[in-house]
Specification:
- The protein is an alpha+beta fold and 796 residues long.
- Among the domains are: 92 residues, Immunoglobulin-like (Sandwich), CATH 2.60.40; 102 residues, Cadherins (Immunoglobulin-like); 101 residues, Sandwich (Immunoglobulin-like), CATH 2.60.40; 98 residues, Cadherins (Immunoglobulin-like, Sandwich), CATH 2.60.40; 117 residues, Immunoglobulin-like (Sandwich), CATH 2.60.40.60.
- It has ten helices and 43 strands.
- The strands form 13 sheets. Strands 36, 38, 41, 42 and 43 form a five-stranded mixed beta sheet that branches. Strands 3-9-8-5 form a four-stranded mixed beta sheet.
- Cadherins are calcium-dependent cell adhesion proteins.
């Protein structure tokens, strides 16, 4: 540090010396006589005189960062007209005048009062002028000059970034450019070596180097391996003064990462892999995994797997799991423990992307042996064929054998097999199968015209383990038998024009017909058309077979008339080519129609030929009017019918309730004065006179006969009931039914006692029911039930 300060002081002294010499030089160079003025000859002998300047100069210099005790003398201004008597005053203006730069108005000396920094401002522009001290009158025109701040080495180099990151492929050649770092120095690059930088490497050797002038970092060692070391930290220094002693310096850190190249082949960690698979495994099931290690990363480390050899190449396959970089061994086809119990595969692992630069490192692949053991499993039965096709004739009798399916147990136990039909595929139950031998038979005749093919599924299961079963499709073709006669292909209808007898017959057919047959083509076409034998000589029409399963119907004569006959029915026999042949008789309708002169149909209706005129408009209106009148009458009639007639007997709700009297409690008998008056039962017509019936509306007042009314104090119930019946029978105003009145009241203390069977059944009292014998024939049954107790006891 002490040495640094000594050097800075020496530079300041050197700068002052240079400044003094420059100022003197400048002043001397500007005080040449030519600047004061001289005469020159112009054109045509004229003499031109140059104006005289008082002073001239170019520029001043001042050293930056001067820290001396006195202000720095920048320079001195002096005018030729200054005689030294103090009448001239020097004035300074411009940038920094009065603050940074001050002038002695008498001597013209300029001093810098502050420390200057070239990095803040490199130069200042000032104006100098000499004026009269008393009047301030300018004695000379103002003159401009520049004060330059002279640089010293006071700024160290600085890099653009504190840290740098760079990548370079591994195994790059020596001298491969990695990155360029750049530093800058704030000092003046045009003065001295203060800004002349030199780069050097402080850390990172011997792997990297840096160019001293450019800052480019390059590799210094060959075959740097990323797998050995991936990241390096390098420190670069930039030093000014051309790198000489005493220069200032700055550093930066550079992190260099080696990027991967495919310089390593994949390698299996072991030479043999052991795996196993069950014979019950299905194709596509994973058997095991292998993995070759590749230290490279990214696409350089991608590995693909293949089976290159082995006796299981047809049964196994291998795929690549790119997420885990593993080879997945899968079952390609089913294996059988009873057939072969072990397989061997040779699996190869190879890089996907190979760099030609490193092909000399050897083949980028490796192989390994995979041994696979087959494990025994209880397998389901196996059919001898993957599917079966059988044939059976239609209309074959039930029990006809269609065919046979056969399966066996592939296991060593060879368990017996039981067969069955999947009824979901045979909903109509057309077939049955023998569970022991697999013979399929029909259960009913089949019709090929309904279904030509029938598809069923047959199960084969082990008897001892019904869960082990197999399924096979069976297609059954129903063979055709000629059991359908041909028929018209469409409902044909022919038309013939009425004409006279003299008109020649047309050679065109009335209609061309064809036929359809539900049977197969072998039992269908060619169709033969003919007339029945009984009308083979039909005088009106004939049929000509075209020998292509079509026929034409022709007229044998002319002179057809609608008035005589407008419709003809022609029977036609159609036979097929089956064995034995089938035939049917079809009827063709031929209408006689009116035609124009060109033979075009006009009308085929016989009535239209007879009727010359239709109904007029007036007649139609009259018919409609009659229909409307009839509708109105019907509506009025229905309306009148819906009106209800007033009933002859008025039933009021309260009257109906009075007709039915219910006594549902048991009173105190004749001694109970608060209960129902027994006089009402004895005299239902009332004490004060006759009470008319309320359930009818009598047309006249009926007076009861006194001889039929019982005595008020009579308690003879038989007489009372007879009286009521007689009154109802003799009442002309009563409806044709008996009056229903319910007497549920039963008193206490009566001589007759209680008639309740419930009470008598629940008590053990000895009651005498002999009095029931005196109540008349209506109570005889009751007297027999209760009055003969002693008699029964005696008999027993």
């Amino acid at each position: 540090m002490k040495e640094h300060y000594c050097l800075q002081a020496a530079l300041v002294c050197l700068g002052v010396l240079c400044h003094s010499q420059a100022f003197t030089t400048e002043r001397r160079s500007h005080l040449r006589p030519s600047f004061h003025g001289h005469h020159e000859k112009g054109k045509e002998g004229q003499v031109l005189q140059r104006s005289k300047r008082g002073w001239v100069w170019n520029q001043f210099f001042v050293i930056e960062e001067y820290t001396g005790p006195d202000p720095v003398l920048v320079g001195r201004l002096h005018s030729d007209i200054d005689s030294g008597d103090g009448n001239i005053k020097y004035i300074l203006s411009g940038e920094g005048a009065g603050t940074i730069f001050v002038i002695d108005d008498k001597s013209g000396n300029i001093h810098a009062t502050k420390t200057l920094d070239r990095e803040e401002r490199a130069q200042y522009t000032l104006m100098a002028q000499a004026v009269d001290r008393d009047t301030n009158r300018p004695l000379e025109p103002p003159s401009e000059f520049i004060v330059k701040v002279q640089d010293i080495n006071d700024n160290p180099p600085e890099f653009l970034h504190e840290t740098y990151h760079a990548n370079v492929p591994e195994r790059s050649n020596v001298g491969t450019s990695v990155i360029q770092v750049t530093a800058s120095d704030a000092d003046d690059p045009t003065y001295g070596n203060s800004a002349k930088l030199v780069y050097s490497i402080l850390e990172g050797q011997p792997y990297f180097s840096v160019e001293a002038q450019t800052g480019i970092i390059r590799t210094a060692l060959p075959n740097m391996d990323r797998e050995a070391k991936e990241e390096y930290h390098v420190v670069i220094q930039a030093k000014d003064m051309g790198g000489h002693m005493g220069g200032l310096s700055g550093t930066t850190k550079v992190t260099i990462t080696l990027t991967d190249v495919n310089d390593n082949p994949p390698k299996f960690p072991q030479s043999v892999y052991q795996m196993s698979v069950s014979e019950a495994a299905v194709p596509g099931e994973e058997v095991g995994r292998v993995k070759a290690k590749d230290p490279d990363i990214g696409e350089n480390g991608l590995v693909t797997y293949n089976i290159v050899d082995g006796d299981g190449m047809e049964l196994f396959e291998i795929t690549t799991d790119y997420e885990t970089q593993e080879g997945v061994v899968k079952l390609k086809k089913p294996v059988d423990f009873e057939t072969k119990r072990a397989y061997s595969l040779k699996v190869e692992a190879a890089n996907v992307h190979i760099d030609p630069k490193f092909i000399s490192n050897g083949p980028f692949k490796d192989t390994v042996t995979v041994k696979i053991a087959v494990e025994d499993a209880d397998e389901p039965p196996m059919f001898l064929a993957p599917s079966y096709i059988h044939e059976v004739q239609e209309n074959a009798a039930a029990g006809t054998v269609v065919g046979r399916v056969h399966a066996k147990d592939p296991d060593a136990a060879n368990s017996p097999i039981r067969y069955s039909i999947d009824r979901h595929t045979d909903l109509d139950r057309f077939f049955t199968i023998n569970p022991e031998d697999g013979f399929i038979k029909t259960t009913k005749p089949l019709d090929r015209e309904e279904t030509a093919w029938l598809n069923i599924s047959v199960f084969a299961a082990e008897i001892h383990n019904r869960h082990q079963e197999a399924k096979v499709p069976v297609a059954i073709r129903v063979l055709d038998v000629n059991d359908n006669a041909p028929k018209f292909a469409a409902p044909y209808e022919g038309f013939i024009c009425e004409s006279d007898q003299t008109k020649p017959l047309s050679n065109q057919p009335i209609v061309t017909i064809s036929a359809d047959d539900k049977d197969d083509t072998a039992n269908g076409p060619r169709f033969i058309f003919s007339l029945p034998p009984e009308i083979i000589h039909n005088p009106n029409f004939t049929v000509r077979d075209n020998r292509d399963s079509t026929a034409g119907v022709y007229a044998r004569r002319g002179g057809f008339s609608r008035q005589k006959q407008d419709l003809y029915l022609l029977p036609i026999v159609i036979s097929d080519g089956g064995i034995p042949p089938m035939s049917s008789t079809n009827t063709l309708t031929i209408k006689v129609c009116g035609c124009d002169v060109h033979g075009a149909l006009l009308s085929c209706n016989a009535e239209a030929y007879i009727l010359n005129a239709g109904l007029s408009t007036g007649a139609l209106i009259a018919i409609l009017a009659c229909i409307v009148i009839l509708l109105v009458i019907v509506v009025l009639f229905v309306t009148l019918r819906r009106q209800k007639k007033e009933p002859l007997i008025v039933f009021e709700e309260e009257d109906v309730r009075e007709n039915i009297i219910t006594y549902d409690d048991e009173g105190g008998g004749e001694e109970d004065t608060e209960a129902f008056d027994i006089a009402t039962l004895q005299n239902p017509d009332g004490i004060n006179g006759f009470i008319p019936r309320k359930d009818i509306k009598p047309e006249y007042q009926y007076m009861p006969r006194p001889g039929l009314r019982p005595a008020p104090n009579s308690v003879d119930v038989d007489d009372f009931i007879n009286t009521r019946i007689q009154e109802a029978d003799n009442d002309p105003t009563a409806p044709p039914y008996d009056s229903i009145q319910i007497y549920g009241y039963e008193g206490r203390g009566s001589v007759a006692g209680s008639l309740s069977s419930l009470e008598s059944a629940t008590t053990d009292s000895d009651l005498d029911y002999d009095y029931l014998q005196n109540w008349g024939p209506r109570f005889k049954k009751l007297a027999d039930l209760y009055g003969s107790k002693d008699t029964f006891d005696d008999d027993s």
